[in-house]
């Protein structure tokens, strides 16, 4: 029996933000116990998602009246980070779930929001998404009372482990984009089991084919009488998910540093040929210097990520009609800064921890490589250079980034 299959005795669900973060730490501890073994096995994470459901974390943002946590986005970001410290893949799955669970609020009508939030919260449903914008849009055919989705996406995080999938496409012959939430397990959705990358191996991010998936017009998010009324609030999905990225990157980096310091204290041997021999590796000057440098950089990245989280939370929990393009743009710049900073810091930590753990720490059984592989893989999601340019344009020219599929 694996660590994730062992029963965890959660008799009740937390009621405060700090309680939810402690619950996430408990989940992370369970995941960390066999994270390396599960990464090597690369099996569909059914038990891991069951752990997220049993802990209550999947309904963190759900309405209290339906059994949800009723928490804010700053808590969701901290929880994502905590889980990622135990297992980066599962942290990513949870962070994406939070974004897709909020999708109805981003673009839906009040009636759609209420229906979706009651559905997923009361059933502990888990979300995936088939939206990857680098691929061609899914083609939507308008058949009167129904929309029919067809096409293929090369990435679909969550895929087989999800209960609900977010689809996005364009109505044929128009420029109308339509989001819809559909059951994941149906004949028209085919997951191709082709995710086999060097990192984030348990995210089930492989390709998916959409074959004639039917959606009633009343489920087309944000549409009334087949017309969509856009708001600036609708465009918050991109900075929101980009900050999800930054938070699970931060969690991965925190997990790496935590594991490395533990290994150094317990197993790393001091170097006997330096002329100033120490009894323990933890007394070595260069080891202390390196850990001090990495910890300081990580704290700085965390502070910036938290600052961005506080800023975007104000918008995500505001009245939707009140959010302005200026507010949205300023938050997007801050998120871009946080993302680029934690990528650089996290990759440095994932690399340099080997310098302070020693040659024996490169053994496959130790698994220190998992942190660098995970962060390196997902940090290529979209070029970080463009995030630096967004911040540069704001700093030099006062320009705010225009909403795009990646901004």
UniProtKB/TrEMBL annotation:
GO molecular function: 3-methylbutanoyl-CoA dehydrogenase activity; flavin adenine dinucleotide binding; monooxygenase activity
Keywords linked to the UniProt accession: Flavoprotein, Monooxygenase, Oxidoreductase
GO biological process: L-leucine catabolic process
Gene3D superfamilies xref list: Acyl-CoA dehydrogenase/oxidase, N-terminal domain, Butyryl-CoA Dehydrogenase, subunit A, domain 2, Butyryl-CoA Dehydrogenase, subunit A, domain 3
Top-level taxonomic group: Bacteria
InterPro entries, per database record: Acyl-CoA_DH_C, Acyl-CoA_Oxase/DH_mid-dom_sf, AcylCo_DH-like_C, AcylCoA_DH/ox_N, AcylCoA_DH/ox_N_sf, AcylCoA_DH/oxidase_NM_dom_sf
Pfam families assigned to the protein according to its UniProt record, in alphabetical order: Acyl-CoA_dh_2 (PF08028), Acyl-CoA_dh_N (PF02771)
Protein's name according to its UniProt entry: FMNH2-dependent monooxygenase
Organism: Saccharopolyspora erythraea (strain ATCC 11635 / DSM 40517 / JCM 4748 / NBRC 13426 / NCIMB 8594 / NRRL 2338)
């Amino acid at each position: 029996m694996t660590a994730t299959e062992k029963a965890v005795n959660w008799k009740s669900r937390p009621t405060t933000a700090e309680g939810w973060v402690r619950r996430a730490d408990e989940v992370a501890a369970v995941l960390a116990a066999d994270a390396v073994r599960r990464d090597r096995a690369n099996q569909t994470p059914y038990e891991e998602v069951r752990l997220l459901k049993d802990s209550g974390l999947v309904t963190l943002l759900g309405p209290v009246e339906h059994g949800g946590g009723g928490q804010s986005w700053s808590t969701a970001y901290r929880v994502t980070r905590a889980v990622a410290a135990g297992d980066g893949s599962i942290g990513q799955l949870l962070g994406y779930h939070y974004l897709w669970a909020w999708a109805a609020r981003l673009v839906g009508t009040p009636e759609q929001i209420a229906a979706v939030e009651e559905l997923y919260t009361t059933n502990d449903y888990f979300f995936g998404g088939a939206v990857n914008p680098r691929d061609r849009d899914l083609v939507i055919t308008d058949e009167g009372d129904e929309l029919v989705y067809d096409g293929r996406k090369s990435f679909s995080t969550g895929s087989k482990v999800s209960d609900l999938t977010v689809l996005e496409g364009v109505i044929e012959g128009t420029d109308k984009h339509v989001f819809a939430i559909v059951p994941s397990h149906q004949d028209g959705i085919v997951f191709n089991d082709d995710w086999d990358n060097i990192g984030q191996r348990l995210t089930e991010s492989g390709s998916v084919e959409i074959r004639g998936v039917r959606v009633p017009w009343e489920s087309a998010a944000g549409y009334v009488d087949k017309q969509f009324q856009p708001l600036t609030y609708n465009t918050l999905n991109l900075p929101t998910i980009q900050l999800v990225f930054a938070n699970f990157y931060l969690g991965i980096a925190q997990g790496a540093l935590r594991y490395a310091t533990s290994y150094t204290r317990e197993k790393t041997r001091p170097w006997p040929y330096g002329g100033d021999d120490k009894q323990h590796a933890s007394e070595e000057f260069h080891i202390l210097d390196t850990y001090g440098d990495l910890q300081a950089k990580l704290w700085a990245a965390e502070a910036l990520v938290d600052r961005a989280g506080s800023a975007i939370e104000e918008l995500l929990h505001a009245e939707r009609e009140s959010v302005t393009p200026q507010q949205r743009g300023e938050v997007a710049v801050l998120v871009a800064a946080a993302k680029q900073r934690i990528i650089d810091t996290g990759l440095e930590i994932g690399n340099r921890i080997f310098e302070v753990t020693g040659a024996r720490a490169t053994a496959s059984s130790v698994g220190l490589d998992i942190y660098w592989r995970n962060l390196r893989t997902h940090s290529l999601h979209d070029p970080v250079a463009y995030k630096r340019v967004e911040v540069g344009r704001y700093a030099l020219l006062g320009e705010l980034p225009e909403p795009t599929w990646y901004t």
